[in-house]
Amino acid sequence: MPILAEQVSLFPEWLLEDDAAISSDRAWWVLYTKSRQEKAIARNLLELEIPFYLPLVKKRSLWRGRKLVSYVPVFANYVFLFANQTELSKAWATNRVVRSLPVSDGQRLRTDLRNLQISIASGKPLTVEASLTTGMRVRVKHGPLTGLEGAVLTRRGETRLLVAVDFLKQGVSIEIEDYLLEPV
Description:
The protein is α+β, with helices and mostly antiparallel strands and 184 residues long. It contains 3 helices and 13 strands. The strands form 3 sheets. A 6-stranded antiparallel sheet has the order 8-12-11-10-9-13. The mean pLDDT is 89.
């Protein structure tokens, strides 16, 4: 099976921006997809021009002596959808959705997804974190992640910044020096 090139993971590009014009008839939904269907439904949503976000990270692997680069979803089986009821029905019509979960605090989810997008764009290695524990809330005060907020984790003696998507109770962590952090 061929490895696909990087695809659009955010449509429209301004969807996660703080000053984005948000339509009142749309709401955030988390789509739980069939196994390995995240990228396929993202392509379907792009064709239908329905706003979505599928966080993807670069994965390098070795297969039969060849180095391969692929883009894999950060959260297996999840796609974030910003849609009205008609668009949600169209997403279901793709036959790739198992369940759709309404989001009660859309602004909070959008902020979490924006933080996740910034973390991915930094190019730093990410570790997916599940079953989050509460830690000290911090903000990055210097460097390429300036302004990013999250919680502090300590793993194997290294300090990590946890960027969470609270709705899923999952997130990613980035190794970071503690002197770059300040309490929120």
